[in-house]
Amino acid sequence: MGPYFVGVLIPLMVTLLIWNTKKGKKRGLTVDVGGETGYAIRNHRFTSPVETAWEGVTTLAELFEYSCNKHTNKKLLGTRKLISREMETSGDGRSFEKLHLGDYEWQSYGQVFESVCNFASGLVQLGHQRGERAAIFADTREEWLIALQGCFRRNVTVVTIYASLGEEALCHSFNETEVTTVICGYKELKKLANISGQIDTIKRIICMDEEFQSDNSLVSVSSSWTITSFSDVERLGRENPVDPDLPLADDISVIMYTSGSTGLPKGVVMTHRNVLATVSAVMTIVPRLGSEDIYLAYLPLAHILELVAENLIAAIGCSIGYGSPLTLTDTSNKIKRGTKGDASMLRPTLMAAVPAILDRVRDGVHKKVDSTGGLAKTLFDLAYSRRLSAINGSWFGAWGLERLIWNFLVFRKIRAILGGRIRFILSGGAPLSAETQRFINICLGAPIGQGYGLTETCAGGTFSEYDDTSVGRVGPPLPCSFIKLVDWPEGGYLISDSPMPRGEIVVGGPNVTLGYFKNEEKTKEVYKVDEKGMRWFYTGDVGRFHADGCLEIIDRKKDIVKLQHGEYVSLGKVEAALIISPYVDSIMLHADSFHSYCVALVVASQAAVEEWASNYRVEYSDFLDLCQKEETVKEVYTSLIKAAKGARLEKFEIPAKIKLLSEAWTPESGLVTAALKIKREVVRKTFSDELAKLYSS
């Protein structure tokens, strides 16, 4: 046997051995647990739920201080310098703000910890009393994290509120928690001024921006509220230091108001122990986390996914660079032409994302490739198909020279969109489609850790492992959680089902929160404590366990509707299948028991539909006019049928009629949550006339 043959054979045998080992790897193991009878799985590496990964650390305040002392001189928080704001006018006369942003300016761990201590002391000097609650009501930025940790050093419970919440939800959140101090940005301060007469307990406002000082319109509220700048609070604390009043593990750290998809938001009550459990669990499963990593922060910090992520990143000595969804890439809406986006400037190695954002990255690349055409498109299609074959099991081309060639010729330019150095993406907040997961894996060359969790479980639940190349699953239980399936006979899901046990997903462990603030009835409905003292949260989601212990989300109890002739339709499942149409920006399926068919509201993707119109020379006055044209509706509907057939939907699951909408659904419009989930009931009420016409026509 010649040396060349040996040199080729041995690596191939090793590759095949590794592939076969991973294929049969057990990622979750069955476990005997208390409470309602079910089928329970634990993480394969931990026999009991993890509470903390740091010896002697039991609170988020202790963890932050420990990390700042350990990494004193390393960069922690970075924010881009704002050079200028400019207004640009589009061809149709609309004006848009564009930002000229400079380099990142950094604060070290030592400097940030000093700011945190000063802010904590400043709170006392302002008159914030022990036992009073403070709210953070702002977009994600470095002051948000400093304020959070400053409050923790005084054992102040923080109420987190989405910056995009409407007035009714805002008043409800502030009044229910009896907040006395609000920490916000200038934009949010103006929102508060508009509803000042409806908020009962606020005494102090700490504004992160200095602009409020020259705003005469705020004079009317300054008599009832003390408004102080963030920098002045830090200065007060620096000049009048106060000893910390550190919390205990079971003290309440956060009351997080969810921008729920139904009704008024509910406040989820989290202890330091709860959040620390998830932070500790995620730390054990993200590969090679280290102080050289850089994290791009742009998701709402009022969302549990981002709050856990930033506390974890700070705990291990990484750097956090702040951005926003509107300045993320070089072509983002608010980036001035010629200015680099946040990702290009920061060049992060880690980021978190919600599926809607990853879907937009995928669609953007597809549109760019399709519009370029020619050799570039041919090369992309060939490279993508070769890499897809490699990942799907044809291991030729998975390693070695071919992979390097495709990376250099094709994927290098795509990876540059997010800075070129991304090595791991955490996806959460909603199910990620298999198509998008594969696309991101191949084009960005980074594994996606798709997680499943809820605000009520501090984002802890399951998390797919970095070496798991399967799609459509959310991984095994995190080390902080047990996951149990319980029978849901009404929906036809049983743990005795073959070939996989199925049922409602129930999460147990130290990450399960205390319940809903001032809502004992709802708390008792979905939280249970078993005979061993473990808390369980009944999620309302339906899942099944694969043989290796990984969970797959297959339904949601509230999303299942029975049609007139008895067929059951899973709204979320159908929407996930249809949204892959390039013409769809958002979609909501509607069904009820008075009809034998479904209908759908479809928010059209403006770029894709206008490109189609241009190619087929369809004349129109504006985008609204284009969406109302019969040929446009027909084209979009045909693409939905194609997507439905590809997903093997039943005939009764496919919408019989659609209404094409031109206006995007945004958190500001109140039609989707901050995580871009549809507020089904709000959308139904808003478009009740359109839905009625679909059924009557």
Q: What is the strand and helix layout of this fold?
A:
Elements: H1 3-23, E1 28-30, E2 39-43, H2 60-70, E3 75-89, E4 95-108, H3 109-126, E5 134-137, H4 142-153, E6 158-160, H5 167-177, E7 181-184, H6 186-194, E8 204-207, H7 219-222, E9 226-229, H8 230-239, E10 252-257, E11 267-271, H9 272-283, E12 294-297, H10 304-315, E13 319-322, H11 342-346, E14 350-353, H12 355-372, H13 374-391, H14 401-415, E15 424-427, H15 434-444, E16 448-452, E17 462-463, E18 482-486, E19 502-508, E20 515-516, H16 520-526, E21 527-529, E22 535-545, E23 551-556, E24 560-562, E25 568-570, H17 571-578, E26 584-590, E27 599-604, H18 606-615, H19 623-628, H20 630-646, E28 657-661, H21 680-686, H22 688-696
Parallel strand pairs: 3-13, 5-6, 5-7, 6-10, 7-8, 8-9, 12-13, 12-14, 14-15, 15-16, 27-28
Antiparallel strand pairs: 1-2, 2-18, 3-4, 10-11, 11-20, 16-17, 18-19, 19-22, 21-22, 22-23, 24-25, 26-27
Helix pairs in contact: 2-3, 3-4, 3-8, 9-10, 12-15, 13-14
Question: Main attributes?
Answer:
single chain, 697 residues, alpha/beta, Luciferase, domain 3, Rossmann fold, GMP Synthetase, Chain A, domain 3, 3 domains, eight-stranded mixed beta sheet, globular, disordered N terminus, AMP-binding_CS, ATP-binding, phenylpropanoid metabolism
Task: Write a brief caption for the model.
With 697 residues, this protein is α/β, with parallel strands linked by helices.
- The strand line-up of the biggest sheet is 4-3-13-12-14-15-16-17
The name of the CATH architecture of the largest domain is: 3-Layer(aba) Sandwich
Weakly predicted, low-confidence segments: 1-22, 394-399
* End-to-end C-alpha gap: 76 Å
Radius of gyration: 26 Å
The number of helical elements comes to 22
Counting helices, strands and paired strands, the structural category is: alpha/beta
Integer tally of domains: 3
Give the beta-strand count. Answer: 28
Q: Considering DSSP H and I runs of 4 or more, what fraction of the residues is helical?
A: 25-40%
Instruction: Using the coordinates above, name the CATH class of the largest domain.
Output: Alpha Beta
pLDDT average, as an integer?
89
Our estimate of the beta-strand percent is 15-25%
Largest sheet: 8 strands, mixed
What is the CATH third-level topology name of the largest domain?
Rossmann fold
Overall geometric form: globular
